[in-house]
Amino acid sequence: MSLVAEYKITRTTGSCGPCAHGFAEGEEFTTALFAGGESFERRDFCAACWKETAEAYSYWRSRAPRKDEKKRENPMAVWAFFESLSGDADPQRKKLAFLLSLTLQRKRILKMAGTRREGAREFLELEKRPDGTRYSVEVPDIKDEEMAALREELVRLLDSAV
Ligand SMILES: [Zn+2]
Questions:
Q1: What is the pLDDT of residues 29-81, one digit of tens each?
Q2: Number of neighbouring beta carbons within 10 Å of residue 60
Q3: Cα–ligand 1 centroid distance for 24 (angstroms)
Q4: How many Cβ atoms are within 10 Å of 87's Cβ, its own excluded?
Q5: How far apart are CA 13 and CA 149, in angstroms?
Q6: What is the sign, positive or negative, of the torsion defined by CA atoms of 24, 63, 19, 40?
């Protein structure tokens, strides 16, 4: 049976999708994104419910914050989602890949190695630290009014500001 069909879609981030177990402070869980239509669905899985699935567009390890802990960015989430998006030809996803590449450059996980043009299209050539893996990211045409929506989408999917 399809994993997607096994349970109701929930956007609650504090509990496991399949078994509804609420995550304890500091508990590790897996977050997976599933591609569906225009957007992605984010689902969280406790250790017992998670199995790697080819259906997941992208996934990463998360940890439930402790009560006194401020919510922080999860660099693993940003990286995992960027890596999945980087080979995607979908125009909307290219925009997300570009925004995440800016975050990763700011975090010095990606380093700018140059730019390249192909007709009217421009690409950033990026290098991952420390292993030097190359990524080519198209510079998309993002309208001002689109930007806020794209950022909100990333916050919703990654559960952190980017
Ligand atoms: Zn579970």
A1: 999 999 987 789 999 999 999 998 889 999 999 988 887 877 677 888 999 99
A2: 20
A3: 12
A4: 10
A5: 20
A6: positive
Q: How many angstroms separate the CA atoms of 77 and 24, rounded? A: 20
Upper half-sphere CA count for residue 66 (Cβ side, 13 Å)? 3
Distance 139 CA to ligand 1 centre (A): 39
Percentage of the chain modeled with pLDDT above 90: 70
What's the CA-to-centroid distance between 59 and ligand 1, angstroms?
16
Within a 13 Å sphere around the CA of 46, how many CA atoms are in the beta-carbon half? 15
DSSP string for 87-103: T---HHHHHHHHHHHHH
Q: 50 C-alpha to center of ligand 1: Å?
A: 7
Q: What is the pTM of this model?
A: 0.84
